[in-house]
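Quick one before lunch.
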Amino acid sequence: MWHKRFSHIYLEDGVERYPLTRTILGRLSKAKVVTVRNYKDIFARSGQNFQIQKRSPKLILARKKNNLIYEGSMVSQDFGYRNFYYNSLLLNCVYNCDYCYLQGMYPSGNMVVFVNEEDFYQATLKAIEFRPFQEEPLYLCISYDTDLLAYETVVPYATRFIEFTRSQEDLVIELRTKSANWRPLEDVIPNERCILAWTLSPPMVAKAYEQLTPSPEQRIQAIKHCIDRGWPVRLCFDPVLRIKDWEKVYVKFFKEVFKLLPAEKIRDVSLGVFRMNADYYKRIKKQRTDSDILFYPFESSQSLISYPVDERLHMIETLKAALVKFLPAEKIATWT
Ligand code: SF4
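Model of the iron/sulfur cluster complex:
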């Protein structure tokens, strides 16, 4: 599968020396390797078509020179952690959800892997040391502008970051995914400070709007496996889409999920409606006319677009009321 997906690998000047480069090249030995001066020569050039490139993405291996860690953004939930950060180990995602902001954020559908992993660890250590709230841990989302676990077979970043976290008592990480590939985690000892967070959508939503992702049933099987092994698991019903009969569809889905998963073993739940940076949204709308969910009469506020405030409050209240039948309210974090 991966050989088909990545027929070409672009190597930025100087990345040959990193062990992760050698691992990836070894795993994709059939790909044609092309050397480039700077990864942006490929990734950031003008006139690219994100959706066309997604059909046959190329892999670019590069070194991240700055911004190795960012402060958490207002579109994301911090789950009560005041030292909230994220990093970008990879740019772009193997999947292609209609509602994904990456389509508007990146000029290219190609995939970048930053192979200078040691620099990311050093940046994390520094952030731990200088975190503003010293009495609380650093909370770091490591699968932010990508789906790290989905790439683990080729780029073993998720398991390596979990191992790094093990030795850092003041670090909590979140690995968010739609992957059903639990196998790379099989030999990794679960850690309370490594939260595995699965995004789940009702089957009809996943089928219509989450291209290339494993089905919700497959994701639930992976979750079940990881819960049984003792991993802390977060469920993310996020983004909730305002589809026809959204209330019926989502409430039914919650019932199905908690029939299959032991609610008492779920660490917490995130619930949020569709929202996106307004500039990314404008760019996406220009590029694609094929997805009805992008053409809702959204409201814009504080450089974000989302459903009008009364609609989104109603959606969250309704769905939270449905979720508290399974989990205590304090385990449900909401974005409104
Ligand atoms: S899984 Fe997440 S990052 Fe990947 S395409 Fe879908 S929304 Fe974007």
